[in-house]
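Known limitations

Files may contain more than one protein. Parsers should not assume a single record per file. Below, a two-record file is shown to illustrate correct handling: read the sequence, read the token line, then continue until end of file.
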Amino acid sequence: MLQRLAAEYEATKPVSILGFPDLAGMDQSKLYKLDQFQVMLEQLQLAVLGFKAGVSVSANIATGAFDTHNDHDATHVPELIRVLRGVDYLLAAAEEAGILDKLYIAIGSDFGRPPFYNESKGKDHWDITSMMFMGPGIQGDRVVGATDAGFKAVPINPVSLAPDPQGVQLTPQHVHRALRRVAGLDTSDFSTTFPLDTQDLPLFG
């Protein structure tokens, strides 16, 4: 199986940040940890090649440099730009590989940022965060969930998904269950072996 992956890799031009002139021309003061973008691109390319070769069905792409405990505003937005440009590349590479119609993408973080600054004009860790999803069957151009003025999660109605003080608190378990359903895995042996004891919410339409 690895021979198929090796063949795909050898037939593909290695991705490079030089292919992104608007980012490659930036120095470290304008795009924090620019080297992380190259590493992310390489991970994304290898994942797509693995899918195309039929040797893998999922991949975790990790990228760091998001700690902004100092001078948050000068670094955080450029980091988000870097991630979104990576997503652009992933979509284009998946389309070229002929797998875009089968690809699900989940983008998230292990924590969020608070609605206030620390003494160093930075932002520390917060227990409320957000995620982005795209893929077949996922309804786009909408937001599910909300926060209050203190950036605390607001419960949602389990049917309409609108903010509802009497609703349910959205959790990672809800997200995973909705992903299984939209991907057609909710009735699989995998889901039976590893059940999710949580309410099924229509998060993706």
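...continuing to the second record:
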Amino acid sequence: MIPALLIWLYKKYASRILKTKYLTRFRRASSAAALLLIPVLAAASPSSAQDLRLSYQVIHKGSVIGQMQFHRKVSGTNTYFNLKSDIKTRFVMPINIVTTDQAHFSKGRLQLSAVCRTVNGQEKESKKTVFRNNTYELSNGSKLRQLETEIGYTMMMLYCREPAQLGQVYSDNYQQFLPIKRLAAHTYRVNLPGGNYNDYQFEGGTCTKVTVHHDWYTITMELI
């Protein structure tokens, strides 16, 4: 899920910097396949009988650069998730990144998830995972493919349900399963494609802090 120096931003503005001594660093950053705030996350136990709202502040180098809101709504055997982040940063020019992640679970199985990102008011990315005819249809722009593995735990779920004894999590953004590793009591790591990773800390089953580790930056999301 998800804020700050998104990879495509490097691609968009690299031409303005190629003549500087930082050419090598920006080429390397342009090839990295990571969205900064992956938002990251969506699903909870269908047996939960109450709604849940969580607020996080996004911090980079000691400064708050944005906010993130998480909402889980339970209705019978259906659970709905919404995660929205609003980040303001600067890369050559001011950048406002808004990310919205939505998901619907029925009886513990993912039915639909959608990821949308806009930058300065323009849509830059839209991905969907839809359960249809006993399989998942994955769309990324005009690209379509299928996934037959059942999805019962996604990255949005990491905000409201500790992944105890789970070995993997489905990423709505990367549209694939990612490994989860327990680092310590109530602390877990999700390894991302490209060698980057996110660390999640929990208290009472709720995620209180996410640390996003990237080659060129570290971002934290802390529960308010």
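Parsers that stop after the first record will miss the second one. For reference, the second record is described as follows. The chain has a mean pLDDT of 83.
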